[in-house]
Amino acid sequence: MTTNNRPAALAGIKVLDLSRILAGPWCTQMLADLGADVVKVERPQVGDDTRHWGPPFLKDADGNDTREASYFTACNRNKRSITVDMAHPEGQALLRKMAAEADVVVENFKVGGLKQYGLDYDSLKALNPRLIYCSITGFGQEGPYAERAGYDLMVQAMCGLMSITGHADDQPGGGPLKVGVAVVDVFTGLYASNAVLAALYARDNPHTGTGQGQHIDMALLDVGMAVLANQAAGYLATGKAPGRAGNIHPSLAPYQDFPSKDGNVLLAIGNDGQFARFCDACGHPEWAQDARFATNTARVQNRAALLELMVPVMQTRTTTEWIALLEDKAVPCGPINTIAQAFEDPQVQARGLRVELPRGDGSGIDRIAGVANPMRLSATPVTYRNAPPALGQHTDEVLRDFGLDDAAIAGLRASKAI
């Protein structure tokens, strides 16, 4: 929870969230954690697709599975859920009314998919010139693939990420692999939230602000290419495409996992000083003096010879013993945890990275656990106000906030617009 009485960083910002699945909701959860009022618009009776992406499912107070998938809870904290049928004329009119009062709209429909409902950027800009409208698609608003649907796995494959993830073809278990989390979706959400913040500042900057909103075009493919980072830079510098190398770092050595006496241990040595201290600690100071290993470049070039020496030595101690030996010598070293072990780690617990929020909607799900937002702002910290909502939990509340009385809400419900 917030620890001071100052307004949250995005207090007063209204976000209309028309997105679903992961990339869009990750963006809007980031804005919600920073204090924005995010209204999540979902389909009546069905809701966001991820509400049904289970198992695993949330459990009720008796420990039994509910029908709500845990996937949804990863990216929908701090939002208010309403149900609106945007195919219904009254539903469209309602959403246009809300967009006219919003600061931000986030959507991830196919290119042009919202135009038929009058909910595209040009239509809403005419109602609200201050509106910041963020579109998230697989391939962007133009280009030969613009009309294609895009999913994280497709983009991991297309952008080359899978070609550098996994063991080499000639190794056991070799072949391309996806990352264990939908990282392109998550990174797209992060880039999108950054873009929204930049657009808000461009609009409201007291020195140069235009007072006008703008359209943000986010594409999963663009992000997938961008987060190739040093691997892309290496290709662009040399013209040579990198391949898969398991847990080995292509530009550092030793920077990988090793079998220990009782499992595995990770070494992440990033400079020559760390390597020299490691050599002293493990009883082989001569390695750091060997011309083949004295510099990082030499170690990368002579990686096979270095590993031939290191692997037997790394198997002489347990993982815990290696960590105890190296942690006070500024040599990066650690275990390879399961997610369960990670949540039990004392540093994870000290940082409060597990958070639980009460929902209290009568569904039998009393509390929902999640992972804390990693941003630590000293003056305007993130806030944890609401658990991921039940479908339509806040429909009446939100519509009253937008000026509708009980009779108007009842009429919309009778017409099945909500």
Description:
The protein has 418 residues and is α/β, with parallel strands linked by helices. α1 packs across α5 and α5 crosses α6. A 6-stranded parallel β-sheet has the order 5-2-1-6-7-8, sandwiched between helices. It has a 3-stranded antiparallel β-sheet with strand order 9-10-11, with helices on one face. The protein has a two-stranded antiparallel ribbon with strand order 3-4. It has 2 domains: 278 residues, Rossmann fold (3-Layer(aba) Sandwich); 84 residues, formyl-coa transferase, domain 3 (2-Layer Sandwich). The chain is built from 16 helices and 13 strands.
Essential attributes:
418 residues; alpha/beta; Rossmann fold; formyl-coa transferase, domain 3; six-stranded parallel beta sheet; 16 helices; 13 strands
Q: Would you tell me which CATH topology of the largest domain applies?
A: Rossmann fold
Mean of residue pLDDT? 96
Tally of helical segments: 16
| CATH class call of the largest domain | Alpha Beta
Blueprint (SSEs and pairs):
Blueprint: E1 14-17, H1 23-33, E2 37-42, E3 57-59, E4 65-69, E5 79-83, H2 89-100, E6 104-107, H3 121-127, E7 132-137, H4 152-158, H5 183-204, E8 215-219, H6 220-226, H7 229-238, E9 255-259, E10 264-268, H8 272-282, H9 286-289, H10 296-301, H11 303-314, H12 319-326, E11 333-334, H13 339-344, H14 346-350, E12 354-358, E13 367-371, H15 395-401, H16 406-414
Parallel strand pairs: 1-2, 1-6, 2-5, 6-7, 7-8
Antiparallel strand pairs: 3-4, 9-10, 10-11, 12-13
